[in-house]
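Provenance and format

Records in this collection were gathered into a single text stream. Each protein contributes a sequence line and a C-alpha cell line. The two records reproduced below are adjacent in the stream.
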Amino acid sequence: MRSLGRCVPEEWVARELRVKGKLNYDSKALPTAEEHLLLRFKTKGDREATMANDPVVARQLLTMDRWQPDFIPGVKCVHRVLAWIRLPRLPVEYWERESIREIAAAAGRLVAVDEFTERQCKLGFARVRVELDTRLPLKPRLFVQSPSERFWQAFVNESLLVVCYRYGQIGGLLVSSSRVPLGAGGPEVPGMDPGAVDKEQCRGGGRLVFEP
C-alpha cells in the first residue's frame, strides 16, 4: 500500500482498515522503503474484504494490491486503486446490466455495480465501481454508437481526491508531459473543477468507440 497524497501514519491505516474490513483485530501495517506499507492479515478472506472497501484514510487516497514475490519498493510500485464512477444521464435503453457493464468497462476494470443501479431504482445516473491504474490518464467519456443513436457518455469520478486536472492523471507528481492537456484542444474532465485543485497536490447495447 502507498498514499497518493500525504503520508499517513501506519497506526491510522491499521485502525481504519479494521473498521472498513469489519475485522476483530488490527492488521499489521509495517513501513517499508519509498513510502510503501506492508500489510499483514490473519486470513486471505480478511485481506480480500479490506481490498474491496473504500481506499481512503485521513482523506488520502491509497493504492493497494496483493503482495508479489521479490517486490522491491521504488523499483516496483503499487498502482491499483478502486473508485466509484457515475454515468450521468445514461439513456434508459442502456440500463440493461450488460450494457452498463460494457460501457463502464471503458473507464476501468469493472469490480461492482451499485445496488440501486442493479435494481434500476433511480435512473438519474448509473453507478459502478472500477479498478484503475494510476499510471494511466483517466478516461473522461466514451462515444457510444448504436443504429439509432450516437452520444458521448461522461464518466464522473466520485472518490478520487488526488488528481491532476490538467492531464487527467491520478498520483505521481507531474513534472513535465508531452501530452496535450485537457482543456487545450481536448475535452475537459466532466465533474471536475480545476479551480478546486491544490497545485501542490497535482499528481501525477451498441458499438462502443473510444475517444481518440
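Adjacent record:
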Amino acid sequence: MTLFRHTINKPLRSLSYKPSKQLSSKTIPPTYPIEEERNPHCNPNKYYPARIGETIGNKYCIISKLGWGANSTAWLAKDISRWPWQSTKYVTVKITNCGEGEKKAAEEELSISQHISGLRSEHEGRSYVRLVEDSFEVRGSILGDDHLCLVFKPLREPLWVLGRHLGSTNGVPPQVLKAFLRVILTGLNFLHSECRIIHTDLKADNFLIGFEDITIIDKYVRQQEAHPAPHVLRNGRPIYESRNDFGPLKKGVGMLKISDFSAAVFGDVLTPHNHDIQPQPFCAPEVLLKAGWSYSADVWNLGTVLWELLADETLFDGVCEHRRKYSKEVHVAQMIRLLGGPPPSRFLDKCDPCIRDGLFSAQGTFKFPGLIPSEEFNFSNMTPFLHGEDKRLFIGFVRRMLQWEPESRSSAKELYNDPWLCYEP
C-alpha cells in the first residue's frame, strides 16, 4: 500500500459496523476527484465507507485518515477497549477493499506476519519489521461484502520525509541514511535467513520511521478532534482528505521498520518464483527478463532505491526519449550501459526465450544498440550528491548489489559492514 505520496490474531468473524457519534467535519464541494478517486482504476464501491468517529471491530474508534492505496485505506484509531487504568493506545488500521483478489492479498499479508511472529528468534532484525497486531472483518454498507482489517502499531512517516525535517531539499543526508541502511540490512537479513521471506517491494514508502515521543500522537489527535479532516460525499459514501503530517521532529528519531508485506512471498520453494514484482524502476534483471528470482531480487531493489532516498531521483527510469513512455528495451539498455556490458550468456540462458530473443541475438548481442545511453550514463555522473572518498566508496557499495547475475550480489548480511557504511567524511 502506498501512503503519503504518488501512500496477530486469528481473524474474527465478520462484524457489521455500528457508527458511533460522528465528529463534525467540513464537506468539500464535490467538483473534483480527491484521494483514491485520482486512481484511474479506482472502483469506489470496493472501498469501505469509513467515517471519522466510527468504531470498527468493536474496539477501534477512527480518528483520521492517514493515506490510501489501490487496494486499501489506512486510518489512525484509538483502542477504546482498554481499562481506565491502562495507558492510551493508538493503532493504524489498514482497511482492505472488498473483492476476491484484494481479500486474498490481505490474507496472504496476514499469513506472512503470523509466520514471522511465530518464529522463536533472538535476531536483532526482528525489531525492525512491522507486523500485524490484530485483525478482524467489517461488513461494507455498499456492496455488502466483507473487508479484512489489519491492525498495526502507528508509525510516523516514510524515511524519505526525514530529509525534509533535517533541512535537506533533495533527500536524506548520507550520514543519516547510512545508520538507517544498517537497520534495513539487519531487518532484511532476518527476513531472508531466518524467516525465509522475500519482501519484493522495497521502495522508499515502505521504510517507516516510528514516533520519537508519544506526545506527538497525543497532540495530533487533539488537533484532529478539534478540526476533523474535510470530506466529500459520493453517492452517500464519504471520502476524507488524508492527514499524515505529524509536524516537525521533537527530539531524536524513532525506530525504523520495514513495512508492507502485501507482496511478500516465501523463498524456499521447489521452483524459483517468476511472477512480476517490484515497481518498474527498481525491477531486477531476472524479474524483467523472467529468469526466475529469489532473495537477491531484494538486494537489487535496495540498491536502486538508494537514489530515491539520497536524491529523490530514479536510477533506471526506462523512459524512451521520443515517446516519453516506459520501454523494456530502454530499461535493459540503461542496465547495459551502467553495468558495463550485456548480461553473461549463462544468465541469458535462464531467461524466458520469448523475452530474451526479442532483446538479444543468439550470440548475446543487444538488438537495440541505439537505445544504449552515452558513456556519460555512469555511476560517477549519476551520483552528483556525493564527493571524493565518500562517492568512491558508495559506488563500490552499490556495485555489490547491482549485478546482472543474482548469485553475484552480496547478501544483506555481507553488506552490513561495507566500507561506505562505516566511512565518516
